Amino acid sequence: MRVLVTGGAGYIGSILCRMLLERGYDVTCLDRFFFGFDPIREIEDRIKVVKDDVRWFNPDILGGIDAVIDMAALSNDPSGELDPQKTLEINYRGRVRVAKLSKKFGVKKYILASSCSVYGSQEGMLTEDSQLNPLTTYAKANMLAEKEVLPLADKTFSVTILRQATVYGYSPRMRFDLAINGMVLGFFKNGKVPIMRDGTQWRPFVHIKDTSNAFIKVLEAENELVNGQIFNVGSDEQNFQIFNLARLVAESIGLPFNYEWYGSPDRRNYRVSFQKIRKTLGFEPRYSPREGAKEIFDALKDGRLNPDDPRTITVKWYKQLMEMHKLIKDIEINGMIL
């Protein structure tokens, strides 16, 4: 099967591309490479690489593609607020463009990478049928993309939406602006876990390899199981209150539980049920926050991760690119994202 992964050099995409190759897929990676080529350098001779943007890539690259996994996006809430209109252009309209072109060019499966952030702040255990309450531009763009691509599903074009829990774990395109990853970095650098106030907020979590496996399960599932469906991706056991999660991270890497508060109180607060994907696709995560925290700490200790790499904090890296005027040409010609 020939699979196109948009955002294939990103935090999740660079892991997913490797896992797809391991299972024998023919992989094409479409990415803007704002964070460099290194995340896919070791597999570049085994995949097709297209340096382009979901908003204006030549649709001819979809010819002969069997499935599209659409991950390209501004990847978190702070980045989404740098320029809300550009965020909507990419994360909403860009993804709708990918979906519609995929259908036009005869792609059989389209999988949208969405987020549990669409639930915002709600009480109780939330399912795929729960009301949405997006609180940020990033979350709103996900919701809008979901609503527009799902109706494209028909007998010849399978559409599936995966609402991912907050992801953690090691990646060659590392991100330390994710909760567990950032906690480990704080411990490594300062001996203290940074905790976003007030620590009582609930959030679901999933390891990067587990969420990548969920996309593969959808690829390999019969269409009648996944077509026109939304799945939360994670596990009920990995719903955590942030303060308790920080304590678990400290225990995982064998350090005393020292912490420091940062930021304003987080308005996002949600617990999510993952029973649907477990019962429908037999999805069971293999990794826990304990294992994820330790693998990141070990990668920092042995030098595989640079704790001071500015590219690991997405919003700061975008701001640095702006300050360095490295994107002026793209801004003038294409109306770049920033």
From TrEMBL:
InterPro entries linked to this entry: Epimerase_deHydtase (IPR001509), Lipid_A_modif_metabolic_enz (IPR050177), NAD(P)-bd_dom_sf (IPR036291)
Domain NAD-dependent epimerase/dehydratase residues, every copy: 3-234
Pfam families: Epimerase (PF01370)
Name of the protein: NAD(P)-dependent oxidoreductase
Species this protein is from: Candidatus Methanodesulfokora washburnensis
